[in-house]
Amino acid sequence: MKIIIAIIVIELLCTRERLSWSDTQLLRDIIFVLTTQGWKKAVDEMNDLKSIDRLVDKFISPLNGADAQVKEIHAEFEVMMHYATQYIALTTLEYCSVWRRLFHAPKRF
């Protein structure tokens, strides 16, 4: 569940800072995390999660302030993605529904 807290912190910070459109890589990383549409492909292709690493690096200070276990975020996100691709219909649900199901998933994926 710490990964979900970390994602919420990142989303709130992005909204608050009103991201500059010139930082397209940051926007792509955020879109990858929030939309859930590319997760199945990422899991199937065994993609490394550079998006997560870049977001953690960008928001390290607020994540530490939120008491997130920064070193575990990458691994926890990967586990969450695998859970979502196995047990949630990513292709037929909107991202809000996917996140709702993740919030209400068993405590340990």
List keywords for this structure.
mainly alpha; single chain; 109 residues; 70% helix
Write a concise synopsis of the structure shown:
By secondary structure, this protein is mainly alpha-helical.
Task: Tell me about this structure.
The protein is an all-alpha fold and 109 residues long. The protein has one domain (2-103). It contains seven helices and no strands. The protein has helices at residues 2-17, 24-35, 39-44, 50-58, 60-65, 70-87, 95-103. Helix 1 (2-17) crosses helix 6 and helix 2 crosses helix 4. The radius of gyration is 13 Å and the shape is globular. The N and C termini lie close together (9 Å). The relative contact order is 0.17. The model has no long low-confidence stretch (mean pLDDT 80).
User: The biggest beta sheet, please?
Assistant: none
SSE string:
HHHHHHH
Number of helices: 7
Beta fraction: under 5%
Number of strands: 0
Average pLDDT taken over every residue? 80
- Rg (CA only): 13 Å
Query: What is the domain tally?
Result: 1
Helix content: 55-70%
* Category from helices, strands and their pairing: mainly alpha
Give the termini distance in whole angstroms. 9 Å
Unreliable stretches: none
- Label the overall shape: globular
Topology, pairings included?
Layout: H1 2-17, H2 24-35, H3 39-44, H4 50-58, H5 60-65, H6 70-87, H7 95-103
